[in-house]
Amino acid sequence: MGDPSAGRDAPYLFAHRSFSEYLTARHLSGLPETKVLEIVDARLAQPGRWQDTLALLGRLVWLRRGPARFERLLIHLLDRRRQTGGESLLYAIRMLGEFGDTQLELAATLLDDLALDFRLLASGDLERAVRSPSASSATPAPASPTCSSRCAQRPP
Questions:
Q1: N or C: which end of the chain has fewer CB within 10 A?
Q2: pTM to 2 decimals?
Q3: What pLDDT is attached to residue 13?
Q4: Spatial CA neighbour of 56 closest among 18, 84, 89
């Protein structure tokens, strides 16, 4: 892939951004979890440009790697809401939006966090949504060193 407008000859060019975003998200969903989280963190510094790719990434992680890994990705985004000025919270919401009407079974504490954030955003209070505390801070040890205490898989 390349950008012919930059003077390069590209063997493939995706005229519709969604193809390139989907293929990027699909590739990312197959990487090891720690690598995905590193890439997500790096892309959070580029607001807007990666919005669709990260939204697609959530659904692909769910389908290819399972709900527990999706939850950890979602929690990872929520944990970074302060550092990103709320941008990662919006990515998390967008990620959930990719599921449409699909009923997701998420950990109750994660649902509590999301419900609080949604209420604060709906009231127009992004600042409080960004600062909102974790309702699930008393979970078992993290599943990976890059995750906070909320990243642990929920008990069966």
A1: C
A2: 0.70
A3: 54
A4: 18
**DSSP one-letter code for 15:** S
Quick: pLDDT tens for 54-107: 889 999 999 999 999 999 999 999 888 878 778 888 888 888 888 877 778 888
* Amino acid type, 35: K
* 100: Cα within 13 Å, side-chain hemisphere: 2
What are the start-end ranges of the H helices in the chain? 17-29, 33-44, 51-65, 67-79, 87-97, 108-122, 126-131
What the block records as the tokens of 61 is 């992680």
Rounded to an integer, what distance in angstroms lies between the CA atom of residue 11 and that of residue 28? 22
What is the C-alpha separation between 51 and 21, in angstroms, rounded?
Answer: 9
